[in-house]
Amino acid sequence: MAGKPSAFDGRIRAVVDAVLPEVDAGRFAAKRIAGEAVDVEAHCFTDGHDQLRVVLAWAAIGASEQHEIDMRAEPNDVWRAQFTPPVPGRYRYTVTAWVDHFASWRAELARRDEADDVRTALQLGAAMLDALVSRAGSDAPMLMEWATLLRASAADGATGMDIAAMKALALDPARAAVVLRHPDRRFSSSQSRDVTVDRQRAGFSSWYELFPRSTAAEPGHHGTFRDLEQRLPYVARMGFDVLYLPPIHPIGRVHRKGPNNRLDAEPQAVGSPWAIGAAEGGHKHILAALGSMQDFHRLLAAASKAGLEIALDLAFQCAPDHPYVQAHPTWFKHRPDGSIQYAENPPKKYQDIYPFDFESDDWRELWDELKSVVDFWIAQGVRIFRVDNPHTKSFAFWEWLISEVQRVHPNTIFLAEAFTRPKVMQRLAKLGFSQSYTYFTWRTGKQELIDYFTELSHGAGVDYFRPNVWPNTPDILHESLQSGARATFSARLILAATLSANYGIYGPTYELMESTPRGAGSEEYRDSEKYQLRHWPLDREDSLWPLIQRINRIRRDNPALQSDRTLTFCPIDNDQLIAYAKHDAASADIILVVVNLDPYHTQSGWIDIDLAVLGLSADQPYQVHDLLSEQRFRWLGPRNFILLDPNRMPAHVFKVRRHLRTERDFDYFL
Amino acid sequence: MAGKPSAFDGRIRAVVDAVLPEVDAGRFAAKRIAGEAVDVEAHCFTDGHDQLRVVLAWAAIGASEQHEIDMRAEPNDVWRAQFTPPVPGRYRYTVTAWVDHFASWRAELARRDEADDVRTALQLGAAMLDALVSRAGSDAPMLMEWATLLRASAADGATGMDIAAMKALALDPARAAVVLRHPDRRFSSSQSRDVTVDRQRAGFSSWYELFPRSTAAEPGHHGTFRDLEQRLPYVARMGFDVLYLPPIHPIGRVHRKGPNNRLDAEPQAVGSPWAIGAAEGGHKHILAALGSMQDFHRLLAAASKAGLEIALDLAFQCAPDHPYVQAHPTWFKHRPDGSIQYAENPPKKYQDIYPFDFESDDWRELWDELKSVVDFWIAQGVRIFRVDNPHTKSFAFWEWLISEVQRVHPNTIFLAEAFTRPKVMQRLAKLGFSQSYTYFTWRTGKQELIDYFTELSHGAGVDYFRPNVWPNTPDILHESLQSGARATFSARLILAATLSANYGIYGPTYELMESTPRGAGSEEYRDSEKYQLRHWPLDREDSLWPLIQRINRIRRDNPALQSDRTLTFCPIDNDQLIAYAKHDAASADIILVVVNLDPYHTQSGWIDIDLAVLGLSADQPYQVHDLLSEQRFRWLGPRNFILLDPNRMPAHVFKVRRHLRTERDFDYFL
Q1: What whole-number distance in Å separates Cα of residue B568 and Cα of residue B580?
Q2: Which residue out of A417, A511, A564, A598 is catalytically annotated?
Q3: How many Cβ contacts (< 8 angstroms) between chains A and B?
Q4: Per-residue confidence at B3, pLDDT binned at 50, 70, 90?
Q5: Which one of A385, B82, B105, B278 has the minimum C-beta count within 10 Å?
Q6: How far is A288 from chain B (nearest CA, A)?
Q7: Is B491 helix (H, G, I), strand (E, B) or coil?
Q8: What pLDDT is recorded for position B668?
Q9: Which residue on chain A is closest to B44 by alpha carbon?
Q10: B557-591: buried (b, 16+ CB within 10 Å) or exposed (e) per residue?
């Protein structure tokens, strides 16, 4: 027979198709969270009228224990089942289908009504039981007995046994259940897909970024890890759970940058933490001015005690005086004069940074060394890495690095700091980054927010791209924040924290509403901490910290805000008002957010709520309880009035209560 | 280095993703037509700021000649190119991308404006030219000369050579074009996909089905191939190009069915042509009453001369007296008493049909024999097969059969007669069937027609599922046709012929508006030709043949109707009126169809035409010329009035003319 490999078995008739979840037909793993159910769907069918049996097998890759459950048939050849991976790791699930001749026989028998046909069917059933006795183990005697009964009854039938009685014996569900335990799976089809299962923080996290060197108690001093320890209660009190530190390594002295990125740095300039490496060490060392490795261990312990997890920055690049440059010149690109090529994107130049050359002939050595950096910090106790500019290193490298690290340490979280073209950001997420920065920082208008977050929560990326949204970063002081308007800072914070389960701010600039750019048209902060020490007046009366504390508390208390999949925008007839809801089915938690995007004027309008999506009834009143102001309103039906004065608070974050039990629930009325 | 096969090269930085066209990530081939351009799209990018080069290679599988062209970059990392497969066959195309260091160097140099940087760049360029000289063949001297010039100019530059002159020398496009011919493709990424390219008839065909045995000149006689030869001018005159014949093989005598599917057939009953095989032969033989193999060859030749191609029926099943049953008992399922299992779907029984058992241990033999049936008829000159109930034979078998047959005979067309669940029909199309029957027969309402044909022409199946739509078949006399209303027959014909590039009718029942079902609620014809001879009064005055002739002429004259991809429905404010347009860009042909679905009443309404889609101007009049009535109207703008009296003609088939050149174009006005 031409055209077929000899291993191929033409007797396989079942088809498994369109398996979900999956990314690019199995080229990448879908992402899920430990403890959350994974809904598996597949299209399974066979030729003709035969019945199928379809099972879902799943296991952590490398684990010896394999789980298997039956999938259930739904209309239109769709089969479903779910499994719940208990702990982080890489899992593989497999949908297997085969023609179930016993089930087909049962289904046909149920529709037979002529005595001769039923008798023939009983004979056929007995023959099928005979065939499976040999693999039925301790069930064999029962099946043999049943076969004998079927044959006897077929014979009795010839002398008048009642058709209904014969069918009842043959269709006995208890006996059929025994047969189910011994399927003939010789001619089965399978499709497997992988799922990367992360710990819960990968799906729900509140990040705070600060520069440790700016935490000294007194102005003009270089902050230390000991100073940072003193700062932990401040960060913890606001309700964050991840404290992310820019690079903590020795900073290069060659071409060191001065304040405001000046090339002519004074000798005492502290330089950019991203210009990593100097004579005293590189990516596995700590800047002496911050403290010792012992201090870092103390910091980790103190942070953990305060409910904070430290995230480090992985910036795979070198200052010219990084020890790698001398030790491994082949890891860098050389110019015709023998000098090493610094980073540039003409006409921009970064003379204090040497990028690695991922086309180096010694790429294996380079990859191994970079992975050893991650392993080193994991050994110190770090499990979250914010990766600086991953899109300027090779995709294959990241795919290898992340899978290798997570194979041994599945608790590790990688956040991709790639602010670049959409397909590049998507690719980084597909190949393994646990979370990704987004364009949120630049999405400030109502329609662009709706479009972007609809794409993020319902588009092609939902199975692999986890947004982590930031209203500001040390690199991005968005134009809208440069007004310094308190309402804008409040609104952007609330949007970030309620649109996305993962969000972060760069503080204390954020709560102190730092708003001055380096120059006109610039998104850089003036006197940025990237290049100099700063000292922050944390106790300033107008600080936004109480609002931050409240919004983080709301996030922790409400499961609806801990996932992105249910995000639904609500029509509201005012271009400055944006409204959306999220809900959590298990806890029946519903949050409805309305934000006034205009920082200067009171805006009002009528909101239209999709009651069905939220499980609300059209003729029962429900309560909306503003968790920011503690005001409670009683609403009825989908259409309700909203008025927001940005000078008081530019948003409502309503908890929606379906069932009003006591008079107390009606405290406040409009 | 853990986790990577040693053949893997980490220096590959380019990514090729999201290649189109494709079906299930390359599991199946997309379908196209010979002579039509295949638009290829891919997402290609690399890390960092480097430039990519992306090429499209394509070739017929097995051919020695490989074609390659550059793809062009569009915004958002999308790359495009197209190729035109000249003849039918299976093709493979490959998108290959690599980092183009020379192009990156050029792009960066263009943005440099400091003398030192430009001089360094010239040195770097010279070094790149040195590196490619060894593979540059006869271009080597020119490249060496250029490298020398670049070095000299970099040196001159040190003494004041003008930056612009240096850049002009380095960016010289003519010299760069030479470098393009010698790319360094060591670190490239590729993705390949297959395309099945069919001949034009697979994409545009008009089918007519008839029973040869009903073509005798006199009633009561068994028609022959000689009689059928006399019928060819009748079919050709109507404008069909495919004449499809139900099975022409010996018909079983065991359990032969009588008229109207009666079990108690009289001795002279002719039986069902689908009960294939008797003592005198099976699938490779011709029913003696129809004629000899020589007669069949004559018929093929005469049909070809008349512009008709004969399509045969592939019904892979056997009458109980088919020679296969004796010779190959293992190809069939046996019952406990040793008898062979006939086809059934309880409570329905088909005692005259034995299905093959595709789980037979001798499946290889069975597959080979069934393929030999196809090869046999191909050897006689047949190239179109209508496959009976493919969904009751195994999917793997069809995939193998079609690909093996088309590998040698790429002109072969297979039409899947599967009226079954959507995913099964989709799978048959994916695995290789050139055309597929559809649910059109049961889609009679306006909205269900719009939904279904929008899915067919714009849904997931467009790259593999080619609809062939039939208003009737010997198995389906739809309820709507049972009224016998001439307007319904006309409307359904016009819908089929203009909604779909491939369509067919079962005649002469259709043109003679045969409308009597076997019983109430039945879709079977009374006195169906499936079980008895019929004699048709072809010259009846009310025959629809002139309308059929006209609609087929319109289809041949208008490229817009020869493809399905441009189908667009137009809003029209009457539930009984349906309107849609198709256009062909190359010929600027536009067809606008409006059908009155109510066979009894005049209906009117306002149509809304999407002028932009059809390339019409909002302020220029255009002509709509009804190719059925020859009436011409002058319209302006998108909104126009329609009135259709079903007693005259239930449809307009307008040719839309954008440019009105002469007064003649205004013959008729509303």
Answers
A1: 5
A2: A417
A3: 170
A4: low
A5: B82
A6: 32
A7: helix
A8: 43
A9: A423
A10: ebbbbbbbebbbbbebebebbbbbbbbbeeeebbb
- pLDDT of A662 strictly over 80: no
3-state DSSP assignment of residue A593: strand
Query: What are the DSSP calls for A443-473, one per residue?
Result: --SHHHHHHHHHHHHHSGGGGT--EEB-S-B
**Higher-confidence position of A610 and B3:** A610
pLDDT of residue A158: 54
For residue A660, what pLDDT is reported? 61
| A451 annotated active-site | no
Tokens standing for residue A472: 């500001």
As a whole number, the mean pLDDT across chain B is 95
Q: Which of B209, B417, B463, B626 is the catalytic position?
A: B417
CA nearest neighbour of A569 among A582, A560, A554, A588: A582
How far apart CA A149 and CA A122 sit, in angstroms, is: 9
Q: Walk me through the domains of chain A, giving residue ranges and CATH numbers.
A: 15-99+187-197 (2.60.40.10), 102-180 (no CATH), 202-473 (3.20.20.80), 565-665 (2.60.40.1180)
Q: In this complex, do B427 and A1 lie within 8 Å of one another by their Cβ atoms?
A: no
Q: Rounded mean pLDDT of chain A? A: 95
User: How would residue A321 be classed by pLDDT, with cut points 50, 70 and 90?
Assistant: very high
- Residues from chain B contacting residue A348 (CB–CB below 8 Å): none
As given in the structure block, the two tokens for residue A108 are 């046909």
pLDDT, residue A670, reads: 35
Q: Name the E strands within B267-409.
A: 309-314, 317-318, 343-345, 348-350, 354-355, 384-388
Contacts of B19 (CB under 8 A, 6+ apart): B40, B41, B42, B95, B191, B193
* Mean local confidence (pLDDT), B269-284: 97
Residue B178 burial class via C-beta count within 10 angstroms: exposed 0-12, middle 13-18, buried 19 and up: middle
ipTM of the complex: 0.94
* Whole-angstrom distance, CA of residue A438 vs CA of residue A432: 16
* Predicted confidence (pLDDT) at residue B352 exceeds the cutoff of 80: yes
Interface test with B, best of A345, A350, A394, A427 (most B CBs within 10 A): A394
Q: Is the pLDDT of residue B158 over 80?
A: no
Element (H, E) at B124: helix B115-133
Contact call for residues B275 and B283 (beta carbons, < 8 A): no
Eight-state DSSP code of residue B670: -
Residue type, B486: R
Q: What is the CA radius of gyration of chain A?
A: 31
Cβ proximity of B310 and B303 under 8 Å: yes
Separation between Cα atoms, residue A464 and residue A32, nearest integer Å = 8
Indicate if A388 belongs to the active site. yes
* CA gap B596, B649 in Å, rounded: 9
Distance from C-alpha of B156 to C-alpha of B158, rounded to nearest angstrom:
5
- pTM of the model as a whole: 0.94
CB-nearest to A15 from B4, B347, B427 is B427
Q: Which residues contact B478 (CB under 8 A, 6 or more apart)?
A: B441, B442, B444, B471, B472, B523
Catalytic residue, from B227, B388, B529, B598: name it: B388
The residue type of A197 is V
pLDDT for B5 equals: 61
Alpha-carbon distance A89 to nearest alpha carbon in chain B (angstroms) = 16
Contacts of B30 (CB under 8 A, 6+ apart): B21, B22, B23, B193, B194, B195, B196, B463, B464
**In which element (H, E) is residue B92 found?**
strand B89-99
CB contact under 8 A, A47 and B404: no
| Close Cβ partners of B585 (under 8 Å, ≥ 6 residues apart) | none
Cβ separation B337–A368 shorter than 8 A: no
User: Does the pLDDT at position B462 exceed 50?
Assistant: yes
- Kindly report the three-state secondary structure assignment for every residue of A595-651: EECCCCCCEEEEEECCHHHHCCCCCCCEEEEECCCCCEEEECCCEEEEEECCCCCCE
